[in-house]
């Protein structure tokens, strides 16, 4: 086992126009995770994170409770959590 996991997330609340993507990317990089983040057309933020299970759990907690300073997080969903043999991305990026 590699100890690496991947999951998809979506954050609901006041998360667009408050630098949520920027802070998410920064936090992901600080935790040495890879993946991506983007705004959706339905006013949420979604993405995928990959890395060691402990770091992914820390990121899940950050997405649930912290976010950007001006955001309001109402709900976060996590889907497709799975073990992976190797990272599928090289860095943590913002998608448009």
Automatic annotation (TrEMBL):
InterPro entries: Acylphosphatase, Acylphosphatase-like_dom, Acylphosphatase-like_dom_sf, Acylphosphatase_CS. This is acylphosphatase. Keywords: Hydrolase. It catalyses: an acyl phosphate + H2O = a carboxylate + phosphate + H(+). It comes from the Eukaryota. The keyword NADP does not apply. The active site is at residues 21, 39. Residues 6-96 form the Acylphosphatase-like domain. It comes from Aldrovandia affinis. Its EC number is 3.6.1.7. Belongs to the acylphosphatase family. One of its GO terms (molecular function) is acylphosphatase activity.
């Amino acid at each position: 086992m590699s100890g690496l996991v991947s999951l998809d997330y979506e954050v609901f609340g006041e998360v667009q126009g408050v630098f949520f993507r920027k802070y998410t990317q920064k936090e992901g990089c600080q935790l040495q995770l890879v993946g991506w983040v983007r705004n959706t057309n339905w006013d949420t933020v979604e993405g995928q994170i990959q890395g060691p299970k402990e770091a992914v759990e820390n990121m899940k907690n950050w997405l649930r409770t912290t976010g950007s300073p001006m955001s309001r997080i109402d709900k976060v969903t996590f889907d497709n959590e799975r073990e992976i043999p190797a990272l599928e991305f090289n860095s943590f990026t913002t998608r448009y």
